[in-house]
Amino acid sequence: MLEFDHSSRSISRTTQVALFGVIGVCVAVFGVMIVLLISMGSGVRGLSHFAQELFSLRTAVYFAGSAFLAVPCVALTRRFGRRMEWERGMTWLIALTVWAFVVGLFAFVVWGLRAIVILQLAWSPLVPAGIVLITTGLTRRAGDAKHCASCGYAHEQAAGERCPECGFLWQKRGGTIIGQVKRSPAMILIGAALLVLSVALMLRPLYFGAITPAIPTQFLIANVKQGLTTSGFGVNAWQELMSRTLSPQQTTELFDGLLIRRSSGRHIDATEAAWLDQQVIASAVAPELIQRYFVEMIEFRIEGPSTTEFGSEVTLTVLALNRTVPFAMVDARMIFAGFTVQGEHIEGSRIDRYQTVYAFDPSTRTAESSLASPMLTIRLDIEGTILIEAELWACFAPRPALSFGRAWNPDGSPAIPSGVLHVEHVKLRHELVVAPRD
Questions:
Q1: Closest by CA position to 255, among listed 230, 239, 276, 235
Q2: 44: pLDDT confidence band, cut at 50, 70 and 90?
Q3: CA dist., res. 2 & res. 6, Å (int)
Q4: Tell me, what's the pLDDT at 172?
């Protein structure tokens, strides 16, 4: 007769090593997935940005902290499991679930509210964990005594080939099982709670709108500042903010947060840009913030080599880091005064008409004259350090106040458009070292 003994429930050391290897891979994938979600939630897309986030110091702290947190999670779960008489496999499953929950909270410590995007998939591990807990809680067994696999009658209490209680054949494979059914109400309740929580997270778009007004304004501002216009709760934080009356302090905090987002290269959409424009036009924030709004919107530079040889020909171009939003309320026109080399103005380098920022933006400029960046090509016949300068005025105003007309007055002064909100006088310097020809 084939019987199952207690040793049949143990696993070999090789299997244990393989199991821990699989768990390690799953944990690594879990961590990378969190980093990916947070990276996407920051508003910047692209593989390079994700790689930069993945290998950053913050991510290293997160992985190191997650590994450290595994120790107390496992220790406490095993201690509780021994008290509840859980099987080893169930103890490790619950320990892994607890650890996943704890490292999810730890992500908020490392990344702040940017980590709220992990709520988008937070329900996915709860479903299998809840099902396993409920199933195990209903069917778990304790003890080493053999029982009938059909009705649970104790095998040691009767002899023969069949169960005297139900007549089930004990000799067949699986005829007896080890341990007596000992249900765990705590395990069943925890599993049911996880399933309820997972359903609540999955259906949050259906009900969360009803309680949106109860969300603190500071929480919504923090979401928008991190680029989470649509939060992990399924609430459009920006739309909700725009439906509320913000205090001057909240307006200043939101304005400053959007400027930080814009200067860091993260996306500002048209509605957010329009709100910034409205605050600037209405002078609703402090003058220093309005100054930052204009100064950080466009950053100019001279692009060209820093070294060359005597007698060679070099080309230098004025380019801009453009953070404007197309068709925004506030636009800009550039008045380009031209280049100077060693203090001498280069004839013909001045541009007579107003230029848009797209003429300086390398992502949009073309070889056409309407979008050609200011460019200087010179042949260097002197040695040493050559100073090349460029001068321009950036004029910011509501779009209807700007035109593409002549940029210079008859007396040679720049024709600043009427109705401008801000004028930034920009002087660029570029040093070029000319070495003797070998």
A1: 276
A2: very low
A3: 13
A4: 74
